[in-house]
Amino acid sequence: MAKRKPSELNLLLAVDKPVGITSHDVVSRVRRALGERRVGHAGTLDPLASGVMIVGVGQATRLLGRVTLDRKRYLARITFGAETTTDDAEGEVTRTAPATDDLSSRLFASSILKDFLGEQEQVPPAYSAISIDGVRSYKRARAGEDVDLPARTIEVYAADLVAIDEVDGHVVWTASFDVSKGTYIRSLARDIGRAAGNAAHISDLRRTASGPVTAGMCPVSYTHLRAHE
Length: 229
Known about the structure:
- With 229 residues, the chain is an alpha+beta fold.
- Helices cover 21% and strands 38% of the residues.
- The protein is built from six helices and 14 strands.
- The chain has helices spanning 23-34, 64-67, 106-114, 137-142, 185-195, 222-227, and strands spanning 11-17, 39-42, 49-57, 72-80, 82-84, 93-96, 118-122, 131-132, 135-136, 152-167, 170-179, 200-210, 213-214, 220-221.
- The longest helix has 12 residues, at 23-34.
- The radius of gyration is 19 Å and the shape is elongated.
């Protein structure tokens, strides 16, 4: 087997991923822009989500495992009234619930969010990149299989209410979260809706920080990558 040649570029990039593309799309753009095949990333972001992605190039890909040990921060919009197959706005509605007055109460919202602080068991979304017998969970779900993922231990360090709005007749909570590695904000939204006696899903999600790297520190945008292809 031929020995891999040493990479000419070895670095970590902080990329601000826009909505509408996959994490794999970002990796592909970096490969083409830098002319380097050895590229990976730490912490997948769904197409619906935007924000901080750490990309490793060359020998720096070996550092990505350490990067994923860090906690992450998010700004999320949680829309009440419906649960979906994907726990976000892209999925099909599986359950609906009528709006209640308490959902518009900041006191009620803050109380519900406070209950989610600390270490807990969380069931990931069926539409996730978790591998089951070598097949991604989302592929099984799209094929019509019943996906029953085991709960995993996660920790929520902070869950703060930012605002309460009404959009198209639905109550929307904007909240900031500081969470451990492996936490699915989509699952948090689903469980928050149930805890509030309603149904909910994520309608907008932005990762504001990955470990010590914040969105404001990202020197690279997707537009920059396209300009250098």
